[in-house]
User: Fold these one by one.
Assistant:
Number 1:
Amino acid sequence: MTTRTEIDRIIQAALDAGGIAYVRNAEGAYLATLPGTHKLATM
């Protein structure tokens, strides 16, 4: 069984590997800034 902490690490590793800028608000909560002309952000 995968724990929340493990999932949190997986998400963080994927964002880092993709070079995506993000702010970690809490465990499992990330605000990612997506590149592009419209400057989108998603949580």
Note: The chain has one domain: 4-42.
Number 2:
Amino acid sequence: MAGAGRTELADTLFGQMRMDHGAIYRDEKRIEVGDPHDAVKQNLGYVRENRIDSGLLMNMSVTENLSISSLDKINRYKFLHRGEERELALDKIVGLDIKLNHLNQQVKYLSGGNQQKVMLGRWLAADSEVYLLDEPTQGIDVGAKAELYVQIHNLARQGKGILLISSDIQELVGLCNRILVMRDGKIIKDCKSSETSEEKIAALIS
């Protein structure tokens, strides 16, 4: 439910906001996430709802945006290895079918769907273990949505963890095996998608 604290939860998990109390656990082990740098070290990836203001570097190239979370992998003696950066970007461009004119094209000139693919590709390149996806299909066309759904299913099959935040109930029921409903910053319902329905979820948030 919009305004329920969903995005604030994701921001906290990724270290964008500080917790007043509580702890973060992954695979039954406590992890420390004090800031986004810690989150990346803990193999967390975050596709934010507002990709323009707080996700993509709009005036930088597609290649730079795809590689920015993987610089440790492609640096050599504190120098950026441009050849490896290009290979990394090409791999994600082909794998995600990102439509662009050239590798140095600025991200701001891509369509909304392709911008969203770049955001996801950034964390795929970093080989994240847990993906925080906040409204990943918002503002993109039906075809781009379908392609992102395929990528989400692929990640799940690889054993990656996915926290999907969405106001699209059909999307939640179709993609998730577990659904948490939040209101006023608190979880008011925790259910398996196989044991609920769009109508039941809609009733909870109305």
Note: The mean pLDDT is 88.
Number 3:
Amino acid sequence: MRALPVLALAAGFASQISSPFAPPQDACGVVFNDLNSNGIRDYGEPGLADIRVSNGRQVVLSDESGKWCLPLPANDEQRQDAEFFVIKPQGWMPPLGEHLLPKYFYLHRPEGSPKTRYAGSKETGPLPLSIDFPLHKQVEGDELRVLIYGDPQPRNLQEVAWMGEDVVEECRSFDGSFGLALGDIAFDNLAIFPEIASTLAETGIPWWMVLGNHDINYDAPTDKLANETFIANFGPANYAFDWGPAHFLILDNVEWVVPAEGKANYQARFSEDALEFARNELALVPKDRLVVAAMHIPLKGVQNGKVLLDLLAQFDYSVSVSGHTHTQRVDELGAQHGWNKAEAHTHVVHVTACGSWWSGEPDQRGIPHSTMRDGAPKGWLEWTFTQGKWKFDFRAAGEDASTQMHTITGDIVDGNLEVWVNVWNGDPRNKVEARLNSAGDWIELKRVLAPDPSYVALVAAEESRREDKWRKLPKPINSTHLWHGQLRMADRWNGPMQVYVRVTDRWGRIHTERGVTPLPAKLPAALNQ
């Protein structure tokens, strides 16, 4: 075969054809069927029609020959920087680059990124004559399984190693299509992005990344320049793709604010560029398609989150996901949050892969248990998507897949045993019941907003012996997945009893746990007779 004169660029996996003449004012290129999956357009490889391509704001469809054109977007910094990318269609896949990261974009940085503590993109020179995006066919079924991590957030290579041994290792057997990391990929140390990506790649699946507030360049002078290191490593901060039965919209909702006086900081807000991209790309998505919107900061705390909710409300099916809080939580967003449909919009705040920022007493391997401040363990969620439907399973690091909760027993008061159940991925739609011994009556427990008693005790116990040997656990907060009740003890105490727990989740699945009630130090006199 005769290859066209193209060059695969490190700035993406787009191909470029250089021009000896003045650089064009618009970016143009071809989306093509990469029949031999070599990343370049060989003779006879056809263009692909009706494929979405974006410059981060506008979205166009490729024509019958696969050609597309887009203008350079206006830039407040008087720079000509831009990202051009293809929106992966269902049944097609861009090439995978180093560390199994999809290469679906071309980064245009004529002069390179501005100098910051952590490097951005290198100088790319003038806009190429042609930016070509290779895609190859792949089989995508009616069911899609996805691995989603909240905040991996290692500070250094030691914590990267902990993540690999304690979390990633268990995901090597995950039978799914790809992974999605919901921001705070790192903890301010952006130099270790490559090592984090390399460790995640040990799962053997591609990874898509969301930008978090600890992934930005803190020395950047503006919000538009604050993502340069993230973009150089992972690609655009706002993008989208289709996979199987679902459409995924990835948005940056971390706005970097640099005041004329005072300290720079971030706020939870979608930029106008992000919202313009969302409007334009969602306009080309069928209204009966399931839309999954992913971001870092939970949606109900985003200043202009209602704009996104209005866009999602146009679709028959939608769900949104985030990380950031280092808790597991399910928010049902209604009219008070700006959602304008009768049935609530579900937003899932994800358990984090780092738990409570890699804190707490180390185990026998030297890895902190890092229990989260709502009492749930560190871990991840495994999602399943079908046509218009979704569900997820909580996976706790170091635990069997069937382990979904823990039970706490307290004092016996007037013959009643206090019981709390922390259902790690519980939400208001769960039904939680408990009983004493296998023949007891099931008693429905009440969902309460309170700290997990076992986590409160853990924090106090560790602090009494910590002596700065490990990072201090964060203070307890109210758990949104805690249930409480009282179980009537037998008339006579006959030794240890067992508390049985039965949880019916929002999909009707039943999860169970059985634990031994510890013998109280002091039993009521009536039970000692």
Note: Residues 1-13, 18-22, 520-529 have pLDDT under 50 and may be disordered.
Number 4:
Amino acid sequence: MTIMILRKLVAVTFLLIACSALFSTGADSDPIQIKQLADYPNQLTRDGELVILPDHGTVYLGTDFHGKLHYFEQWLKQTALIEQIDSGEDVYGLILGDVIDHKLTESIPDPDGDAKIVDQIRHSQQQLGIKGKRLIYLKGNHELAATEAYAMLKKNGMDASNRKQLIDLLYKSAQGSYFRQFNFIERMTDEQYDYLVNLPVIAVGKNGMVAVHAGTSPSAMNIADLVHPNQTVLNQLLWGRPSIAMAGGYTASQTQTFLERIGGT
């Protein structure tokens, strides 16, 4: 049985590296036929993978906590974000992905730090009620890849009794170094998976602000392409790098074109 599962895992890893499964998040929003930013109301709106912010208010950005719970808590403390939202202030918290997965080249002060951050975000959103929508967690490439790997493992029979064994086999496979980057699979629960897989991908403000984890998308022709992005657009948004950092990365002119197409500045 173990040998059969390992063969399946190794076979599927090639497919996972070649392409990423796209998860729909449209259940939380009604279908909206929109081609331009101006077509959206001037209020907080979730449309598929896209979040629209109004042209007023203050946005506090945080990103790439990678399990560093003390950094996340420091961000909350310095911004007084939860208290401000709860008291009715016109503020938003916008987390740009990569909350999860420990970087193996860095010290890990709390092995469960990323799980605690995810749960704290979810708890705060729930405790704030309708105001909790102002605490926005966007998907990063680590949320995307870790949920894909977790889904693959579950599909191949992973449960509490064999979880460590199957993940060890995955880490020892030919693509082991790739999957070790997404080590939240060691701690992820089904509930956390359901939450992470439904995170939005990009936020656009009515004032032209654009917030996303990694890059712009030369393949997106208009803002409608961000609602349910195809695989190419999704990969560009979550895995992209600027040309100064990576050969073949997006350029300044491509960024300008992208912003013009979606109504950003």
Note: The CA atoms of residues 59 and 92 lie 5 Å apart.
